[in-house]
Amino acid sequence: MHRGTQEGAMASRLLHRLRHALAGDGPGEAAASPEAEQFPESSELEDDDAEGLSSRLSGTLSFTSVEDDEDDEDEDEDDAEAGPDPLPLGDGTSGEDAERSLPPDGQRGSQLLARQLQDFWKKSRNTLTPQRLLFEVTSANVVKDPPSKYVLYTLAVIGPGPPDCQPAQISRRYSDFERLHRNLQRQFRGPMAAISFPRKRLRRNFTAETIARRSRAFEQFLGHLQAVPELRHAPDLQDFFVLPELRRAQSLTCTGLYREALALWATAWQLQAQLGTPSGPDRPLLTLAGLAVCHQELEDPGEARACCEKALQLLGDKSLHPLLAPFLEAHVRLSWRLGLDKRQSEARLQALQEAGLTPTPPPSLKELLIKEVLD
Question: What mean pLDDT, rounded, does the chain reach?
């Protein structure tokens, strides 16, 4: 199948799902309750999605598969022993670790979808229908990390925004989805009872059909979580989308890999804006601190100053917040460098120092990022 046909099929399918989600909710949030929607209870893939699976198997989903059964380790058992931290974005996907590198067809498909989807979001903005995010698994890598082997799924998170805004992309493995499902089951036993999750397999975890079915099932799983207000704002769901990127970005920033870190900070900021209420009140501020540090180190003082101004707006009059003085100090320094007015930030910083609320000089944003523990 030609690439244009593949992208067209994905665009058509996503637009159909978006129209269905928006049209079927009704005028209020009540329509998004588990009782109002019939979620699949046990199947790994909804029965009426044979066309979607066929599209994936014909190339809409870009993936690698391994058919040799003697190498078909129990991915689920390996994942269960992987520990509590999700796999950071970018780990294990380099040429030596991956079974095969994937062509960027999924990214091109996402770029094709962006304008159509954003136009549709714009038309629905003035309606009373709740606006949900859409999720698309665009590619899957079989990753060898001896002694284990697993599939790394690349997920596009598509929501309202400017037409030129590309979907945020994150990478997760089966164990990350399973951990999210398990944590939500413990906290929200009632709402989660009607939401299915792809079951474990003892063999054939790396076949094309299994990867395609799981990809579609993960999309449905996240879409169903978004449909229930009680689950949509759960801290564990926020952590699933944002925390791995924040941790990886923090690590890269501390080691001086600012360009790589900047992309992850930007993804984390975009995801937090799409998801709404963050699970941790300081996460947007820490994200802005990371963005400011990276822009400054990459000789882009204008963008760094803009990040400081956003943070100061979020902080408001919180004079005791530990990030206030560092943001003020950075704003003063960047304003002086750009020849812009710094008097208001300078006076506010001086008042904090005279009141003994911050040392002179205050700690830098980078120092605070290094010390911050993201949990």
Answer: 76
